[in-house]
Amino acid sequence: xxxxxxxxxxxxxxxxxASAQYNGFAFGVKLGPAFxxxxxxxxxxxxxxxxxxFRMGLMGEYYFAENYAITTGLNVNYLRNHFSYDDMRAFxxxxxxxxxxxxxDRYYKGTTFxxxxxxxxxxxxxxxxxFFAQVGASVGYSRKDLAKDVFVAKEDANIKxxxxxxxxxxxxxxxxxxxxxxxxxxxxxIKGSTRAFADFFYSRDILNGVKNGIGSEGRYREYxxxxxxxxxxxxxxxxxxxNVFGVEVGILF
Length: 253
Prior knowledge:
The structure is a single chain. The protein has one helix at about 1-20, and strands at about 25-40, 45, 50-65, 70-95, 95-120, 130-155, 160, 165-170, 175-190, 195-205, 240-250. Helix content is about 5%, strand content about 60%.
């Protein structure tokens, strides 16, 4: 897997660099901090705070008109989240396993490789500066999903389970991501076609980030299995949407 991603990066660099000899093409690198939080369309996940992640990447631009470009590239996102949700866990009582309703407090860390594509609109130059806005979408693949959970029973707060460290939860998450993104920023002309830039960006997943019916090892499996009371009916899956807001700086050639 690592070799495949390295090969993809090398191919992207070579192909965009080869194209950069023509007017209208640009190639660059970027990096910056990101602030991540959890969202949910069904309120089955409750955000517990914004955490800091990081993003870096390679990018290419093709100007099909004087002030309009198509941008793409490869981003590596280091994601962080803190959220809570309701769940049911089994606890040993004497020789039996008793299911208890409770609250799960989850700290999440993940790494995602992402290919964005967007329309970029650039203003005329104001001295060495020009300003831009871009809107688009992205597809991505999760390379790593880790979580650390704290479960507290609703009926008795003394009944508690806490992970000692982050553990892999890849089977619980959808490995493929589709998102919408937007950015606002400015270029600074250094010399010739070389420009530094900075921007504010925002992205949000449009697909549910967790799977349905994981199985006995998954914490996102069917809620309250075997309980049929009307007051305990819950959706079969959580609805999890990654939100990211950040600042990028970079250089274009």
